[in-house]
TrEMBL record:
Domain of life (superkingdom): Eukaryota
Subcellular location, record wording: Membrane
Family, similarity comment: Belongs to the major facilitator superfamily. Monocarboxylate porter (TC 2.A.1.13) family.
Membrane topology: Multi-pass membrane protein
Membrane-spanning residues: 6-26, 33-52, 58-80, 92-113, 125-146, 158-177, 212-231, 237-262, 274-294, 306-326
Location (main, coarse): membrane
UniProtKB keywords: Membrane, Transmembrane, Transmembrane helix
Protein name: Major facilitator superfamily domain-containing protein
Naturally occurring in which organism (per UniProt): Phycomyces blakesleeanus
Stored InterPro entries: MFS (IPR011701), MFS_trans_sf (IPR036259), Proton-linked_MCT (IPR050327)
Amino acid sequence: MNSLSWIHSLWLALANIVGPFFCFFAYRIGYKWMLVVAIFLCSGSMMLASLATQVNKLSIFLTQGVLAGIGASLVWFPCVSAAQQWFSRKRGLSVGLAISGSGFGGLVLSNVIQAAIDNLGYRWSLRILGFITFALLCICAAFVRPLNRPSHVSGSRIIDLSPLLFIFVCRFLLVFFQVRSQALSAISAGVMIVGKISGGLLGDYCVGRSTAAFLCTILTGVMCLGLWLNANSAATVWAFAAMFGLFGGGYLTTVPAVLAQVVGMEDIEAANGLLFFGWFFGGLFGTPISSALINNVADEPTYNYAIIFSGVILVAAGILLWVIRVQRGGWYPFKMV
């Protein structure tokens, strides 16, 4: 488990490695060529991984960790930034729709790949995934464009924005909680589709994006500590998976939507780069820490410590998001911010 967790952690960390350089890349080479490079990195990593022999070999770390991670980073930043730019009043909904594709992928592809493994073996399942990735990213590269030509912004200009620093710290903390729902990934991925879209709608039309980000994040932490920690039946675990997908999907949508309000469209590339780079550290260390907490008992693994770790991190991030909400709208709880 520890070996596998480090592969995933390396991927998750490198999936945000472009962050500090995103503004430069967007200005110099543009979204299109970032996505073209990503096509070959992401699909090629799957093809090369199909040739590896053991999961603990260097080849798996290089393909599934390094190549796939950097490729994912080159996809993530242009796609999220484009969704933020093209809409104003419905920005939360646009971001939610854009990233809800990951929910569809988790729900559909997990079953497709499992069927491929059962019938064709893991090598061909990786190749099939590579072909699917190639086709989908070609569509992405053809249509994803920024609203305006990206501007070159110095990092100091962004770092001076204190609300963004709060969001950065939230993002840093939130990846540590991804400890994990992966054992419940199928139902969580499906419900996250609803959570991502409804979270955007909640922020756009009901309570405001800052308030929605706070509510979704804090409630995800409460679900971990109140429901998952005390789960003693299959029904409780399923209920947690559904609630986790609903509120966790909401925070994934609302935080980027809040970011656009904080910094404006002129600085969105540089701000996104700083924001999501917070995931690098949480992504690199969060899963191994959680695996160590799960495996801390010699005779039988226990999830309790990892669950507490997750819930506390989420609640702390939610409190920081409340600080942003107060900074932007004051203490009146019913003001849309």
